[in-house]
């Protein structure tokens, strides 16, 4: 009778140990319980949940980069000297930063549009003050082209 009891106890202990080791990753505490991320060893599940919670915002392009691109375009068109380039760059940077603040302000859409139009007019006056007569004419033409892109370019793209 004692041998049957001892066999049953040993069998119970072996089955219990087997069940416990299966829950903790079959390798003891190294694979499951003690790996630093909780009871299970499924790290993919945690990282997947993190991605759905916090979507990444698109990175904003720095103002200086945008201004540099604009200046690359208009410098040869208007035949600007270096002093004009620096002064116009500073005006554009100030204007873009102010425009960003206006867009982030908690005002109505109509107020934002009015404020941005006023800012655009002020910026244009500052820029025009830096240009000579020939450059002013070219600048006005560039602004008109910007507002109404040429149809010939769009026809070329569609063909």
Fold and architecture overview:
- The protein is mainly alpha-helical and 159 residues long.
- The protein folds into two domains: 2-53, no CATH class; 63-150.
- The protein contains seven helices and no strands.
- Helix 3 (63-78) packs across helix 4 and helix 4 runs antiparallel to helix 5.
- The longest helix has 23 residues, at 82-104.
- The N and C termini lie far apart (96 Å).
- Residues 1-22 form the signal peptide.
- Keywords: Signal.
Rough outline: rod-shaped
Q: Give the termini distance in whole angstroms.
A: 96 Å
The helix content is over 70%
Range of strand content:
under 5%
Number of domains: 2
Key features of this structure:
7 helices; rod-shaped; mainly alpha; 159 residues
Summarize the structure.
Keywords: Signal. The protein has about 160 residues and is an all-alpha fold.
Topology:
Elements: H1 2-23, H2 43-53, H3 63-78, H4 82-104, H5 109-130, H6 133-147, H7 151-158
Helix pairs in contact: 3-4, 4-5
């Amino acid at each position: 009778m004692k041998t049957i009891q001892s066999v049953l106890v040993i069998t119970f202990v072996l089955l219990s140990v087997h069940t416990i080791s299966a829950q903790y990753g079959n390798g003891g505490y190294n694979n499951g319980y003690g790996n630093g991320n909780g009871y299970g060893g499924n790290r993919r599940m945690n990282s997947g949940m993190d991605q759905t919670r916090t979507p990444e915002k698109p990175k904003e392009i720095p103002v200086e980069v945008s201004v540099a691109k604009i200046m690359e375009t208009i410098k040869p068109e208007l035949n600007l000297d270096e002093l004009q380039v620096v002064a116009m760059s500073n005006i554009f940077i100030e204007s873009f930063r102010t425009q960003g603040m206006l867009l982030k302000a908690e005002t109505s859409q109509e107020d934002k549009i009015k404020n941005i139009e006023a800012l655009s007019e002020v910026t244009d006056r500052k820029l025009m003050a830096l240009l000579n007569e020939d450059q002013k004419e070219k600048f006005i033409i560039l602004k008109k082209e910007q507002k109404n892109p040429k149809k010939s370019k769009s026809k070329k793209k569609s063909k």
